[in-house]
Structure formats: structure tokens, C-alpha cells
């Protein structure tokens, strides 16, 4: 496979899923992944190793615009960040595809409707073997195909929490999850949220779509491949070659089609550092590459009752969308509430270093742990930039009033449910809370780098398929939306590009 038909850069949700959508196409496909397979070691279920010692964190530093360096929470393994994700595979709500007014401004519309996109949501749910149920959540959009598997069951303390929230007149619903709970627990009795998946219990990019893709002998994965830049053809209308480094050796490959799926930050970085006549990088006639960076505004909230222990092992089975479309009083949207995986003292110690471990163990043992997530709105000045070899993040948070409002209303609800202590803490830039938006799709090449099929307006053989294409962040986990668009783009490539 000297010069394959297609090269896919990255094996995360976008890259792996589009590869699975091209199975049987007859095209020769090379996947370039900068990481290696995640090894199965005792660290994988050791909360101290993961959360305190940072065993899996990347060995790189990014900079804030202004100079301060920080260690990002992005992961470089086969399967990408999905190896550590919470396996929540939830659809954007139908309303998220239209422009929506928020406290911090307007969330823009997608270039197509939910109804047009829905079939690929159903295909993605089948591919990732999503477990869920319909009829519990009043914001749930139309499904043409019901979930194939029943939801992951609530443990006793969570069943009690569900009943408590229902008692307040709210609508707690089962999270749609890509988790085979029996297999996961056989491999170790922990939660899966933020834990590396070294087995088959979690349906991530590697265990679901990549496993399907690699059954096709025309699809090959190469690891340890760090893409340095793309080379444009002399007329700049196409990408002529990909330059990457593997085991210290600089290599070059010249496919017919390039699919960039390195993640919202690194896909933008690859384009920005690729040589161009105007010095702005490739696919950047609109000057929007790297701009409109979004990362959900989110907080952890611990509802603590010292009188009752929470002995749940995995916990993460509930969500609440009563405040997704409004603040409950006819006002603007707040966001989504869902359970975190069950925390322990080590997880708390990673963020609260001065408190003794025994006190943190006690707190964790009596807490139900929640994740509050609100929409971050696109802003051209919220952006990813490059400075030499450095990645520079200028994240300008927006719409924080929604997070403040959701925090306030949920604190009141949990106290009404009998939890006298309710603590919350926002997540910071070290946590990749669903990074997106840096190479957005749209209808106008003057304002968006990508068309609605994620093809670059500037280079006819370049597609970008990962969280970067999202025009808005909504207020739910984006993995299923990325996977669904990857399947949609794969269908387009089969019908249009490969049929030509």
C-alpha cells in the first residue's frame, strides 16, 4: 500500500467510525495513529495511578495565550480519547439543530435538520451497541429504530436517587451507554467513566468501529505515526501529500483522499502549521480554522448525606434534562445533568490536595456524584493557535450564566431530596470536556472551512471528521453525533468520491 486511495489521520470516534463506514468499498485505506494500543496493566483500574499519579496523561504541554503552560487531558492511544470516555452515546436534541437563544448569546444552527440526520444516529447506535430506553425523557427526539439493548441497570443507591428526583416532579431518565456492564465488571469492579478501557466492556472507537473496519483486508492501521503537516498541490485545490514521522523517520504518503480526524485541537493544529501561500495554513480561506473552540462549561456536584453510604460501584446510569430547553420558568436553557462514575478518595485527592485522605474517603463514600454540563457558545476569538511547535489555547468561556443557574437549581433539588451537604466545583481546561468547533461545517465558504459533508471548501480531496466540525456544542456528550456524521460522510464518499 505505497499510495493508498484514502488516508485517515486518527483512530478516535471520527476516524474509526468513518473507516467502518468504508468497509467493503474496495478502496485501499491507510489509518495513521500517533499513539499505540493501550496496554493491559494493573494501572488501568487503580484510581491512584489514574487520577493522582497521572499515569496515562500525555507527555506534552500546551500554553495559554499569555504564556502559562499546562498539561492537557487529551490522550494518544489507538481509539483516542474514547478509551477514557464515559461511554455516554446520546443524541443532540432536535432543537439543537436550529438556532437557539441562550443567556450568553445564540447557539447557531446546523446546515441540515435533525430529521435529515436521524438515520445516521440510528446506525451509530447499532454500531456502538448502545443500551438505553425511550419514553423517560421528555426532550428525547424521534428514533426511527429503538435501542437494541436494555439500559444498564441502576444500582440500589441510584434507584433511590431516581425515585427521589421523580418525587420532586422531575424526569430522571436512563443514560444511553455503550457499556457491556457484565463484561466490564468481570474485568474489574470499578466504574468506567475516565477509566482506560483495556478489555471489551466499553464500546469505544477501538472496540466497536475500528474492530469492524480492520476485518476488511483493504484497511490497515499504522501506529506511532505523528503527522507533521499536509502538503497542498501547486494549484492548492487538493492535498498532494501527508508528511508524518514514524519511529524517528520522516515519511510521505500521497493518497487520493485525505480524512483528517485527529481531534478538534490537533486537526486544527495540523492545518494551521501546514505551509500555504498566505501563511494562514490550509483549508483556511475563511480564517476560521482554529477559531470557535468550544469545551462544555461543566461542574462536578457531590450530593452528600452523612447518614447514608453510597456503595455503588459504577453509578453512571441516570440523566436529567428538565432544564435542557429552558430554566423551568419559561426562560432560556440551562443544560444537562448526569451522573459521574463513582468517585473515591483518590479521585478527590487529585483536586483537593490539602484535605486528609481519610476525610476524602468518608466524603466519597456518602456522596452521589453528578456532572452538570452547559453549552459553550462559539466565539471566533476562542481559538487554538500554533507558535512554532507549541499549541496555544485561548479559550474564552461563554454562557456561564447557564452553569450558574443549573448549579443553583440542582443544589436546591438535592437538598430537597435529603442531602444536607451539596458541593460543586467547575472543571478547568485540563479536562477535555468535549472539545469541538475549530473547523466548523456550514454552507458558506466565507464563514466556514467545511461543507455539510465535512469536505474542505478549499481542497476538494480533504475531509475533516471529528469534533472540530460541530457548529455548536449543545449540552450533551458529542461522541454519538461525531459517529453519526462519520457514517453519513462515509456514505457520501462511497456514492460520490469512489463512484466517480
UniProtKB/TrEMBL annotation:
Which stretches make up the Glucose-methanol-choline oxidoreductase N-terminal domain? 195-296
A Pfam family assignment = GMC_oxred_C
GO molecular function per UniProt: flavin adenine dinucleotide binding; oxidoreductase activity, acting on CH-OH group of donors
Q: Give me the segments passing through the membrane.
A: 6-32
Q: Which InterPro entries does the entry link to?
A: FAD/NAD-bd_sf, GMC_OxRdtase_N, GMC_OxRtase_C, P2Ox-like
Q: Which residues form the signal peptide?
A: none
Asked if 4Fe-4S is a keyword of the record, the answer is no
- Matches recorded under PANTHER family: PYRANOSE 2-OXIDASE (PTHR42784:SF1)
The reply on keyword Transmembrane is yes
Domain of life where this protein originates: Bacteria
Its needed co-factors are: FAD
This protein is called GMC family oxidoreductase
Protein family (similarity comment): Belongs to the GMC oxidoreductase family.
Domain called Glucose-methanol-choline oxidoreductase C-terminal: residue spans: 431-486
User: What's in the keyword line of the UniProt record?
Assistant: FAD, Flavoprotein, Membrane, Oxidoreductase, Transmembrane, Transmembrane helix
